[in-house]
Amino acid sequence: KNEVEQSPQNLTAQEGEFITINCSYSVGISALHWLQQHPGGGIVSLFMLSSGKKKHGRLIATINIQEKHSSLHITASHPRDSAVYICADDFSGTYKYIFGTGTRLKVLA
Amino acid sequence: EPEVTQTPSHQVTQMGQEVILRCVPISNHLYFYWYRQILGQKVEFLVSFYNNEISEKSEIFDDQFSVERPDGSNFTLKIRSTKLEDSAMYFCASRPGQGSYGYTFGSGTRLTVV
C-alpha cells in the first residue's frame, strides 16, 4: 500500500527562520507535488518535481528518488507563510494522488 | 491570473437529498479532477475526467457520484442521496494538456449534510 508520511505534523517558527518539511513515500513516483493549503481551505500548487531540486522565490523543493524522500524548505520565513503544507505522490502519472496528512506551519512575527 | 472557480462556497443539505457542486475550470485546460477532504483528514482523489469521459476514479467514487461537463465550461460533481459522511470540502482542479503544467485548484465547496 502506498503511504505518504510527512514530518513534522506541526511546526511553529519565528519570523526569519529557515524551515524544513519532510515527506516520505513508500512506493515509486511519477512525480511528487507540494501544495499549500491556506487557513480558509484553498489549495495552491507550489511545486511538481520528479528529480533534483526546484526553487521559487523563498521556497525550495528537493527530492531523492533512491531514498523516496522529498523536502520543502522555506528561507527567511514570514507570518504569511503560515499554512498547511501537503505533499502528494502522483505514483501513476495521472494525478491520482496519494496525499500526505500535511504539516501545519505557524510563523510568529 | 486564471482561476478555477467553484460554486457555492458552502452548501448545507438534508441527508438523502441530491447536490450538484459546480466548477468552472480554466478555459484552455483539458484535464479535470475532483478531490475531497473530510474535516481533519487527508485530501483524497475522487475522479479524473478527460475528453468527456472519466479517466480514473477511486474506490470512494461509487454509484452515488457522477461527473459531467454539460456545456464545455462547467464541470459538475453530483452526489445522489447524500449521507452524513459526505460532509467534506470538495476541490475541483484542472490542468492543460500533456507537456504543460499549470495544475490549478479551485477554492473548494464545503458541503455539510445534516
Can you walk me through this structure?
The complex is a heterodimer of chains A (about 110) and B (about 110). Chain A has no helices and 11 strands. Chain A has strands at about 5, 10-15, 20-25, 30-35, 45-50, 50-55, 60-65, 70-75, 85-90, 100, 105-109. In chain A, strands 2, 4, 5, 9, 10 and 11 form a 6-stranded mixed beta sheet that branches. A 5-stranded antiparallel beta sheet of chain A has the order 1-3-8-7-6, with no helix packed on it. Chain B is built from no helices and 11 strands. The radius of gyration of chain B is 13 Å and the shape is globular. The N and C termini of chain B lie far apart (about 35 Å). In chain B, strands 2, 4, 5, 6, 9, 10 and 11 form a 7-stranded mixed beta sheet that branches. With about 110 residues, chain B is mostly beta strands. The interface of A and B includes residues 44, 48, 95 and 100 of A.
Extract low-pLDDT stretches of chain B.
none
End-to-end Cα distance of chain B: 36 Å
What would you call the quaternary organization?
heterodimer
Structure summary, number of beta strands of chain B: 11
Order of helices and strands of chain B: EEEEEEEEEEE
Number of helices of chain B: 0
In DSSP terms, counting alpha (H) and pi (I) runs of 4 or more, how many helices of chain A?
0
Structural class of chain A: mainly beta
Q: How much is the average pLDDT of chain A?
A: 92
